[in-house]
Design a protein that fits this description.
Order of helices and strands: EHEHEHEH
Largest sheet: 4 strands, parallel
CATH architecture: 3-Layer(aba) Sandwich
Structural class: alpha/beta
CATH topology: Rossmann fold
Strand content: 15-25%
Number of helices: 4
Helix content: 25-40%
Shape: globular
Distance between the termini: 13 Å
Number of strands: 4
Radius of gyration: 14 Å
CATH class: Alpha Beta
Oligomer: single chain
């Protein structure tokens, strides 16, 4: 058996999109990937991201928001940016990781919309990420 491909998923706050992407790729990749996520300005994992993921049977409640700086000395096979800001401000990572960018909508900030509207955006973004990840898994395995 070959070693899992190492993947780092980056966004700005490591609070929603990259956290959901990490959980989805870890789950749907069936052990073929070792996945981390981080942010260029880490904050906290949003409770709406945790809830949206629980609804599809993926538990990210134990995740924490991490800084991209924690990973700059590590080797990755793929570095995926899921927002334009992270793509533009991504720190340097050594090695020859393939860089892939796909921007997903940033879910609304807390209080910007009603809780129901906010959760609906999280669900839609989660589903878009899962669909995109299916293609990524198919291309890389």
């Amino acid at each position: 058996m070959t070693a899992p491909k190492r993947v780092l998923i980056l966004c700005t706050g490591n609070s929603a999109r990259s956290q959901m992407a990490e959980g989805i790729l870890q789950h749907d990749g069936n052990g073929a990937f070792s996945v981390e996520s981080a942010g260029v300005k880490p904050s906290v994992v949003r409770p709406e991201a945790i809830q949206a993921m629980q609804e599809i049977g993926i538990d990210i409640s134990g995740h924490r928001s991490k800084s991209a700086d924690e990973f700059t000395a590590q080797h990755f096979d793929y570095i995926i940016t899921v927002c334009d800001h992270a793509k533009e401000t991504c720190p340097f990572f050594p090695g020859n990781a393939e860089r892939i960018h796909h921007s997903f909508e940033d879910p609304p900030a807390p209080g910007a919309k009603s809780p129901e509207e906010t959760l609906a955006v999280f669900r839609r973004v989660r589903d878009e990420i899962r669909e995109w990840m299916k293609g990524f898994i198919g291309r890389t395995l």
